[in-house]
Amino acid sequence: MTTQLRNRMTEQASTIPDVYFQEVLNNLAMIDARPSGMPYFSDPQTARTVIMQSANVSYGINWDLIATAPTGVLTLFNRYLLDRQTATLTGAQTNSGEWTSLTANDPDKLFTMRAAYHRTLGIATEEDDEILSELLPTFSNNR
Question: For the chain, how far is it from start to end, CA to CA, in angstroms?
C-alpha cells in the first residue's frame, strides 16, 4: 500500500505543470479574444491523496427441515438436512486525489499578468509597458 500511495502522490504532483500550462493557454486565448478581459491564476497549494482498500468475506450454510419425504425414505422426514453452502469474497480499492488551490485576487498582480499577456500577443499599450517596467526595471531597456 505504501508503494501505491507514493506512486499516486507522485502522479498527482506531476499534474502541477499541466495546471499552470493550461491556465496560461486559457488566459492567452481569452486575452486574444477580449483584450480588456482579466486573466486568472489559481495555484495548487496542498494536495490530498487517499487510497482505500476493503475486503469482505462471507460464508453461509443452509439447513432445511424436511417436511415431506418420498415413500421409501421416510427416515428423512422431520429432520434437518444441510443442502447448500455459499461463500463470497469481494474486494475494492478506491483512489482519490484533490488539490486545494489559492486563487490570485490581488488587482496589481492581475493587471501585471494582463500586461504580460498583452506583450506576448503583441498588443501592449504604453500602460502595459509601464506596469512591466515597474516589475522588471531592465524591461524598458530590452524592448
Answer: 55
Please compute the mean of the pLDDT values over residues 34-38 and round it to a whole number. Answer: 95
pTM of the predicted structure, to 2 decimals: 0.64
Alpha-carbon distance of 83 to 60, in angstroms, equals 11
How far apart CA 20 and CA 66 sit, in angstroms, is 72
Per DSSP (E only), the strands in the chain are 42-65, 80-103
The single residue listed with the C-alpha cell 443442502 is 83
Res 4 pLDDT > 80 = yes
pLDDT in tens, 70-91: 766 666 667 777 888 999 999 9
* Residue 117 neighbours by CB distance under 10 Å: 22
- Quote the CA–CA distance of 70 and 24 in Å, as a whole number: 82
Residues 6+ apart with CB under 8 A from 89: 55, 56, 57
